[in-house]
Amino acid sequence: MILEPITPTVLSVRRLPNADPALIAAYGGAPAKHTSLGLVTCDQDDAMYVALDEATKHAPVDVIFAKSFYAGAAHASGRLSGEILGIIAAAEPEAVEAGLEALLRCLAHDACFYDADGKKTVTVFPHVISSLGEYLSREAGLPVGTPMAYLVAPPLEATIGLDAALKVSEVRAVRIVVPPTETNFACAWLTGTLDACEAAAMAYAAAVVNVAGSPKA
User: Fold this and answer.
1) 3.20.20.80, 3.50.90.10, 3.40.50.2300, 3.30.70.1710: which CATH number matches 8-110?
2) 33 in helix, strand or coil?
3) What are the Cα distances from residue 113, in Å, to 45, 103, 145, 173, 216?
4) What is 116-213's CATH topology?
5) Would you call 140 helix, strand, or coil by DSSP?
6) Global pTM?
7) What is the pLDDT of residues 123-148, one digit of tens each?
């Protein structure tokens, strides 16, 4: 099964080398610890969550804010809004710069949705993180370095896909987010060995493709 990747579009990237403490606190940061911010918007929220986690692996940064926007990128509030705003924070601008570099590299070359029906009308995110960073490990309640399958699809497709993923290998559900999410998809995080996570992701993607091809089977 070969699926065509849909590379995320980064819509805006800005830096605040010396952000106001009130602003830092409002977005969940700690003014005593954080002085510099990096802000990014793009049109794929789940790819951004993975990329934010990747930033924490390459620089001493904290993810202080990451939220999906309601109804998704197709109904964004503005040309540069996309589907999510992510903010990383650090004590020094150099750390933010290194974090942004890793984040943008991940969005360009690693994390993305895939076309599941050849028309981009059904998409799937069967992403495997071989080693969690500080951000997603905290969100998932797992140790840093743990493998995790990050699985996302539209509501019915995601449900069928998750059933297949859980049955194909020895994986454990860390989080199951039933529809609707902010973007009207559904999501699951599964953990196990790296091989098990990869098998689960493959089964998930295959099930989504199957539903997309035969929705009333």
Assistant:
1) 3.30.70.1710
2) coil
3) 10, 16, 23, 21, 24
4) Alpha-Beta Plaits (3.30.70)
5) helix
6) 0.97
7) 999 999 999 999 999 999 999 999 99
